[in-house]
Each structure stands twice: as structure tokens, then as C-alpha cells.
Amino acid sequence: xxxxxxxxxxxxxxxxxxxxxxxxxxxxxxxxxxxxxxxxxxxxxxxxxxxxxxxxxxxxxxxxxxxxxxxxxxxxxxxxxxxxxxxxxxxxxxxxxxxxxxxxxxxxxxxxxxxxxxxxxxxxxxxxxxxxxxxxxxxxxxxxxxxxxxxxxxxxxxxxxxxxxxxxxxxxxxxxxxxxxxxxxxxxxxxxxxxxxxxxxxxxxxxxxxxxxxxxxxxxxxxxxxxxxxxxxxxxxxxxxxxxxxxxxxxxxxxxxxxxxxxxxxxxxxxxxxxxxxxxxxxxxxxxxxxx
Length: 292
Ligand SMILES: [Zn+2]
Fold this sequence. Notes:
The protein folds into two domains: 9-120, Elongation Factor Tu (Ef-tu), domain 3, CATH 2.40.30; 124-291, Threonyl-trna Synthetase, Chain A, domain 2 (Threonyl-tRNA Synthetase, Chain A, domain 2). 20% of the residues lie in helices and 38% in strands. The protein has four helices and 17 strands. The strands form four sheets. The chain has an eight-stranded antiparallel beta sheet with strand order 6-5-10-2-3-9-7-8, with no helix packed on it.
């Protein structure tokens, strides 16, 4: 079987939970499982380069049989070899095809050209989408709440606030109904003008300010969507989370899934925790998102 030369067309950014497509390739893996590549899918895979949102759960159906999708990862191929979850290049790199690898335990019966249907677990997707939407909103709230601690001009976010989130983030994990973001405040952030020494004393105030900002935005019920660069459907094409806040439209680069409106969230709150790690400060932001 030949390897795909174009990206998988992905429909999960639009909120799709089912899709139909054709099998392009089935790759046997060393652990006995197999990676099934389709031309089109509604199934969100984890991207190992920035593994914030975990894979969907769900099934693949073909020829009267149903296969559990036990995991899904971003794969990449330059036409010679398929890298399953360990691409040597960033998603979107020119000259590579980026594909959703649907992992199944036993691909017996699946062949190139077969028509398949994908069905995603709706409850898990909805809870992850709520967590991801709240995560992006919380990053804006944190930037807002920390804006007074900057003494120099730095990169700003979509609302014009110093972009602490972008400058300090070390990892982000989307959970069902929430997220955990880890920030590192070290020498380079201090050099950029962040008054790290003042943070501990103001942490409660910062948390309260972030939660006030979140409550205010939730009350607006602002529409949320994913914008695709050039309208392209490819997995490797750039996409942006877009929130139409009353004060203006805010966009954040994003490969995940989201709610359609902030009105779907009944509550979004953050909890901040500061600790010391290897000569730097570590700030943990735990976000909780509730849906009706
Ligand atoms: Zn995102």
C-alpha cells in the first residue's frame, strides 16, 4: 500500500461527531496494533508535539464490522515512511503529509479503498470541548489579571494585554471539564520585565481578578468558533480559536475542539498555585468548566 501524499481532511474543528471516508492505508505497528489512515475524519487525534487535548474515544465501522479506536495520534509522512506519533517535524511543515492515525487492536478485514464510518463518543468530546474553551478563556483572564506586574513592553494577546500565557507556558493539558496549565517563571521572563518577586503576595488578588474576568465573559454568551486559514481542511493547516467578545474578536492558534458559545458554560473558574522548581517559580493554573 502506498503512503498518503496529502493531509487527512479533518471535520472535528467544526464540531462533527461522525464522518464517512475511505481507507487510504493500514500500517501494522510493532506492538501488534495497526494505524488506519482515512482521507477524511471527525476523530480528534492527540498531537505529540503539543499534546494539550487528548484523543477522542469512538469506533470505526466498515463492511458490517465495528472496530474500537483505542487511541489516535497525529502521524506524518514524507512519502517514504509513516511516523506514527513521533514525527521528526512540526505539524504543518512543508513537504510532509499530516494524517490522523486511528489505532485499532486488530485491523483484520480492513483494506485500502474500503468505505468507513467514524462515530465519536459525544459526551467525552463535549466535556473536552468545554475544558478547552475554558482553558483559552482562562489564559486571557490570567493575562488580564497579571497585566499590572509587567514593567516593560512585551508581546500582547488578542486583547492587547501582555501575553504572560504565551511567554511562560510550559505545558497545557485539557481535561473533561477543565484544564491544567503549567507556567515557568525564570530568569528570561524576569529580564522581559515580569515582576516575579511581587507575584506571591498578590496571588489571591490575581486569582480573584481572573475569576471576575471569566464570569464577565461567560455572561456575554459570546460565540466561539474555529477559523481555518484559507478555509483548508487539512490536518496540518493552521486553525484559530475565535471568540467574539463584545470588546472585540480574539483569536488564539488552536488544533482542538470547542463549544459554540460561552453561553454553554454555566461556570468557569481558575485556581492558582505557586511553587519553586529548579531555581525558577512554577505557576499552576487549574481551570474548572461546568456545562448545563
Ligand atoms: Zn487550543
